[in-house]
Amino acid sequence: MKSNGLHQRSTTYIFISPWVLTLLVFWLFPLVYSLYLSFTDYSLGNQALNFRGLSNYINLFSDTKFLASLKNTLIFVIGTIPFTTVFALLLALLVNRKIRFATFFRSAYFLPSLVALVVMALVFTSLYQKGGYLEFLFSMTGLPTPERGFLLTESTALYSIMFMDVWIASGYYMLIFLAGLKSIPDELYEAAELDGASRVQQFFKITLPALRPTALYIILINTIKSFQVFIEIYIMSNDSGGPNNATTTIVYYIYDIGLRGVFDMGMASAAAYILFLMILIVAVIQLKLFGYGKATYE
Amino acid sequence: MTRFKNIILWIIMLFLFIGMFLPVWWMLLGTFSESFTPRSFWQNIVNFDFTLKYVHNVFVSADFSRALINSIFVAICVSIGNIIFCLMTGYAFARRRFMFKKWLFISVIMVLMVPVHIILIPLFLEIKFFGMLDTYWALILPFLVNPLGIFLVAQYIREIPPDLEEAARIDGASDFKILFRIVAPLCKPVLAVMTVMIFMTTWNAFLLPFILTNSAEMRTLPVAIGNIVGRQIEYQTHFAASTLATIPIVIVFLFFQRRIVSGIITGALKQ
User: Is A5 close to B166, i.e. CB distance below 8 A?
Assistant: First the structure.
């Protein structure tokens, strides 16, 4: 096995042990334990642990709060991703032009996506608050403003948070689009130019088809990320899940029933497993489509 | 004509820049202006009234100053741990054969994609069982080996020819010496990318530190900033803390821009 430099040596097991331990202790065990808990009525208050079969799962689907959280999470995913993707693409096309300062603007658009989400959530809470800047802008243009502020009104709370998410996530995905754009060979455009194709035609016949895998990838990872939305919800709805559960999402629900108050961990684990299944489906699609790292583990 | 077109493009870009940075401007105005009002952007700029009062508040506030120290300590420990452990693990994946290698590599990829949110409850119970709730251990131990780090390092080492290691082995160097004296220096670029990414993730992390700690002394900076819920808070002091939390990110970004970009793209598009 000299030829490919692969060895079988005793220190291998020392080298690999940090990952094996992390995987076992902080991933596999919790995953299995969580599945077990989801079939019980375990809670911190009531230490007695009774096996309850599938009743947690069944109860979840008659719990209005959980159903609201499921609905809100789906609205969040479906409502933000198209906008984020299109906006990110437009930004990428803009800064991909070979003009001066384009690299500066590329960095400038990307930077806000690196700032801690909790910071952004705090700033936007201030912008959205009753008597805040957004209300000022709305009243200046003659638009109606919600009486209790955007975040505490049932009809606007979730959309306000989604708007913020599009705003700050776009710069990040712009960067991935940009990598996709750079990988399109210039010859394609030169050939199209020779054939007399217009810029618009070039965009629809070359750029967009070439960006399809990138766009698909962005949509998939963004879906996985958006399924987990929590920080914004926690901060911006003042740890209430919004008026009439208007902004309760799945992770917020898990935290709300499992990690405080009655600490109903059985029920929370069942909710977590439903989220896990949703994410797993998207992850498997991603692996199937992209064969992520397929050739690299040999 | 092209000149005219360029000017139009610059104006569009500039407007987008001002717009996308609006939350950042807002935070800076709230941090440094005595006459800050949440009502009007324009008024805040016109009536800008410089003060360091709120920054000072952060440093004298027991909670915030402690949170700042906690954040620095935790981010450094996690970064150093990852440099050592991801190097070891990544090296093994790149150069060694062992049982379940394929499955272990798949586990790296899976963990990379599957978020920690789904194991919040058991992780909380486990940390509690170990008696590590509300200690530095809870903030550090679970994060010492990052799957993205393993992935990046393994990919990188695979591209290096093993000749130097072979030569050192013939000279009688131990495996650890080979790894840390010969392979590690060659891996500097990838270790830099990895450390920068992990530092930023750890620095910004909210959910797990929020759940695994409960006393004010153990909060990290993001958790302290987020501790506004259900309280009458002084917004501007929280803005100042936010500015302080953002400064390291901006510095790291300015210094390692290329590496961050390449890290995100390798993590993202290496198919």
Answer: yes
Which residue, A124, A122, A218, is CA-closest to A171? A218
Q: What is the pTM of this model?
A: 0.91
Interval A4-23: pLDDT, tens:
557 667 889 999 999 999 99
Other C-beta atoms lying within 10 Å of the C-beta of residue B116: 17
* B250 three-class SS: helix
Question: Nearest chain A Cα to B160, which residue?
Answer: A5
Alpha-carbon distance A56 to B170, whole Å? 61
The Cα B134–Cα B140 span in angstroms is 11
Sketch out chain B's domains with CATH numbers. 1-51 (no CATH), 58-269 (1.10.3720.10)
Q: What is the ipTM, given to two decimal places?
A: 0.91
Among B20, B28, B37, B58, which would you mutate to test the A interface (most chain A Cβ atoms within 10 Å of its Cβ)? Answer: B20
- Domain containing A117: what range? 63-296
Contact A131/B10, CB-based, under 8 Å? no
Tokens at A35, concatenated: 């599945």
Contacts of B88 in chain A (CB under 8 A): 14-16, 18
Between CA A216 and CA A212 the distance in angstroms is 6
